[in-house]
Structure formats: C-alpha cells, structure tokens
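Illustration 12: Carboxymuconolactone decarboxylase.
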Amino acid sequence: MTDVREQGLQVFRELLPGVLPDGDVELPTGNFADEMFGLALDSVFGRLWTRDGLSRRDRSLVTLGVLIALRADEELKLHFKIARTNGLSDAEIAEVLYHCTGYTGFPAATSAMKIAEETLRET
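Figure caption equivalent — predicted structure in token form:
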C-alpha cells in the first residue's frame, strides 16, 4: 500500500467513522469499474483532503457547494455527514444551501436540501 493510499484510508476513516474497518482494507474487485474507490482514496482523500491551506471544515464548505452545483446526489449524502464530522452545524449546512440558490439555482439547492434533510435525520 502506498503512503497516499494509507493517508487516504486514514482521512476517510476520520471523516466517516465506522464506514471502513480498522486495519487492511480489501478494495472491491471483479465488479464493473471496481477501481473507482481506490482512485477516490488516493486522489481525493489521500492527496486533496491532506493538503495544507484549508481546514477540513473549509474543505467541507467548498465541497458541499461544488456537489450542490453538480447535483451530485450520491456524493452529497456522504458529504453532509462529513460536514457534520468537520464541525458544521445543521444551521450552517442550511446556510450553504441558501447561499447556493443564488449561484446554482433553486432546483439544485432544493434537491440538495431534500438529501440533507434525509441524511442528517439518519445521523
């Protein structure tokens, strides 16, 4: 396992506690596009989330805005949880949604609001 992969696993575990078991993790194989999770661990969690310059809280704010704009519903489910882990309150997450209406439009922000409501109620 590379240092980047180890860093990615560590950050992923910190951002989404309990999702991955401790120790070595066997990545999915034999499925269609089974390298996607490994790519995310390396490039997103191992390289981007470990950079200096922005706090994890700030990275969550940026990530939520981008994912709302992209209408990336599946990723938003994870990143609303990550935002809470990184210290954002539900009121602050709501402010991100309100702010995004001006830049991404009401349809994208409303869709994200529904996902946030469902996801945050579960946790």
